[in-house]
From TrEMBL:
This is Cyanocobalamin reductase (cyanide-eliminating). GO terms for molecular function: cyanocobalamin reductase (cyanide-eliminating) (NADP+) activity; demethylase activity; FAD binding. One of its GO terms (biological process) is cobalamin metabolic process. One of its GO terms (cellular component) is cytoplasm. Signal peptide: none annotated. The keyword rRNA processing does not apply. Its cofactor is FAD; FMN. The lineage of its organism: Eukaryota, Metazoa, Ecdysozoa, Arthropoda, Crustacea. Keywords: Cytoplasm, FAD, Flavoprotein, FMN, NADP, Oxidoreductase. Pfam families: MMACHC. It is found in: Cytoplasm. It comes from Daphnia pulex (Water flea). Belongs to the MMACHC family. Transmembrane segments: none annotated.
Length: 241
């Protein structure tokens, strides 16, 4: 477990500077919970980390990236900032065969994500992925689609799952599974959460189903609530200030 400890320590320290978190899991844990079309083609004991952006990422990672950026391309600045922060973190860990799967990446020729980050977050123990199946007596129709949503034990809904880092040749058979914390012990709260997320996700009320330790800043909320195609004036504002 020495390799895991060293990698986890270095990665955690570097990502923390950007307001990012990482949590380890094994490929096998993930593959057990997803359909074959979403499984990762690695040994079941392969070491992975799910990456989470905390509320402070906007100020610690995103704004500095925007102010230092001289490039202009079609990719969203937020995606660019995450990619840049992860690249910096990976460079601090040499000697490993590493691949990164971002939350927005799709498998070639399909509309399937390369990785289901909500499932990855759940099996890592970092967040709890609440789904229709978590409700014993669901109020919805059997065939009614209800999308699941993750909650963090501290940030509640004020975070995002950004990527999965795979250490392709590092096997951790002794890594102990850490179950995620179910912070909504009351079934009515689970129903309320899923209803808020499915019926009115735009008002972000699902993020406050419980009191969080931190929330997104006012500027971050404004940025994320603005369509990507209309964010240029906010980018210019950030660059000037």
């Amino acid at each position: 477990m020495t390799t895991l400890f060293e990698v986890n320590t270095k990665l955690t320290e570097c990502l923390h500077d950007f307001g990012l978190e990482c949590h380890p899991f094994k490929v096998g844990w993930y593959n057990e919970r997803v359909k074959s079309g979403y499984q990762l083609e690695h040994h079941e004991d392969t070491l992975c980390f799910v990456v989470i952006s905390s509320p402070s990422f906007f100020e610690k990672g995103f704004i500095p990236f925007v102010r230092n950026s001289t490039e202009s391309n079609n990719q969203d600045y937020l995606d660019q900032a995450i990619s840049s922060c992860l690249k910096t973190a990976i460079q601090s860990i040499s000697g490993y065969d590493i691949s990164i799967l971002h939350d927005y990446e799709m498998r070639p020729g399909t509309r399937r994500p390369k990785v289901l980050v909500q499932t990855a977050g759940h099996v890592s123990g970092a967040v709890y992925f609440y789904q229709k199946t978590d409700v014993i007596n669901p109020p919805w129709l059997t065939d009614q689609p209800i999308y699941g949503v993750c909650l963090h034990p501290s940030y509640i809904g004020w975070f995002a799952l950004r990527a999965v880092i795979i250490f392709q040749k590092v096997l951790v058979p002794d890594l102990v599974y850490k179950p995620p914390k179910d912070i909504l012990v009351d079934e009515t709260k689970k129903i309320e959460l899923l209803n808020r997320y499915n019926n009115s996700w735009q008002d972000w009320s699902f993020r406050d189903i419980m009191e969080p330790t931190e929330r997104y800043s006012e500027l971050q909320q404004k940025y994320l609530s603005t369509r990507p195609s209309e964010r240029s004036h906010l980018i210019e504002l950030i660059k000037r200030n």
